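Hi all, posting the design record for the shared folder.

TITLE: backbone redesign
STEP: 1 of 1
STRUCTURE INPUT:
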């Protein structure tokens, strides 16, 4: 593999779930100059090697100044504040930032599932804005729903605390999933590629995958981690219609999180909706060690107090 290339990289959202992993991985490369752009009221702290630039994230003049001289802008914002994306994109264009990694870190942008969720469809607008401004190029980092974060919040149809598992259509469809750590590591490796290789991802997706597994395999790993058997659980095999109905009912009852989680994970697990991108994975070509599936599941549940 070609030698690595250092860059000036600005991160927004560096203290979040995937942002903190990305920052750590970038710093470990020891070749980049890292700037974190942060809201004035934020109390998050960063290592001394990080350049911290605080200011209002809705002030494009401030952002353009903060981004001056940067090669890459990485956006890893949580959903509640993603409405500031256009201003960040415009500021990056004014500052002549070459690459923008927008708020993707999820679904294949060309997948059928995108049209099922407004927040996924809105990401198209962000990528289009980058292209329309004509200065920067976007790279959409695709991870699919995270295995570890999903299990800790009751995703993947598996509610460990309640000992309930809803295996969609039997749970045998295989999909790609990533860990938060691998998402950060692979992003850092991507941004360390020499320009001759990084340019190949200009205005296209970069696919990351930790594991290619079925929901049934995830459930079996959970059983091993919790030292339980299937008899200890309430296991169902709902259809798409069943899950959609339950999701709608949860939404009407004001339980947005349950409604979203059930439908979001189920749709990724549907055949033909884009959850399986195993033939597109780019991270397998990087300098990354193989992850241990059972170990990830066990450590996730232990950390969340579920095992």
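Okay, here is what came back for every position:
SEQUENCE:
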């Amino acid at each position: 593999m070609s030698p690595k290339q250092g860059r000036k990289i600005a991160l927004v959202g560096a203290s979040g779930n995937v942002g903190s992993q990305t920052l750590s991985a970038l710093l470990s490369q020891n070749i980049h100059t890292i700037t974190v752009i942060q809201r004035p009221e934020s109390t998050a702290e960063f290592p001394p090697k990080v350049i911290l630039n605080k200011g209002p994230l809705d002030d494009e003049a401030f952002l353009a100044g903060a981004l001056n001289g940067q090669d890459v802008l990485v956006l890893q914002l949580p959903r509640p504040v993603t409405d500031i994306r256009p201003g960040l994109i415009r500021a990056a264009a004014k500052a002549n930032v070459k690459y923008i990694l927008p708020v993707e870190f999820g679904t294949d942008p060309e997948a059928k599932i995108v049209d099922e969720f407004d927040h996924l469809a809105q990401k198209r607008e962000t990528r289009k804005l980058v292209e329309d401004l004509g200065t920067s190029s976007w790279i959409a980092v695709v991870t699919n729903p995270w295995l570890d974060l999903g299990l800790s919040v009751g995703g993947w149809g598996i509610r460990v605390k309640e000992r309930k598992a809803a295996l969609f259509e039997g749970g045998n469809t295989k999909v790609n999933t990533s860990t938060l750590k691998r998402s950060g590591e692979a992003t850092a490796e991507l941004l360390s590629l020499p320009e001759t290789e990084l340019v190949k991802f200009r205005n296209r997706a970069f696919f990351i995958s930790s594991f290619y597994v079925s929901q049934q395999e995830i459930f079996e790993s959970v059983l091993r981690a919790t030292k339980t058997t299937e008899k200890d659980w309430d296991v169902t095999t709902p259809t798409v219609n069943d899950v959609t109905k339950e999701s709608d009912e949860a939404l009407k009852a004001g339980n947005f999180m349950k409604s979203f989680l059930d439908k979001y994970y189920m749709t990724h697990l549907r055949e033909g909706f884009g959850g399986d991108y195993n033939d597109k994975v780019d991270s397998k070509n990087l300098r990354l060690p193989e992850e241990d599936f059972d170990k990830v599941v066990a450590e996730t549940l232990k950390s969340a107090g579920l095992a």
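COMMENT: The first strand starts at residue 8 and ends at 12.
Let me know if anyone wants the other runs.
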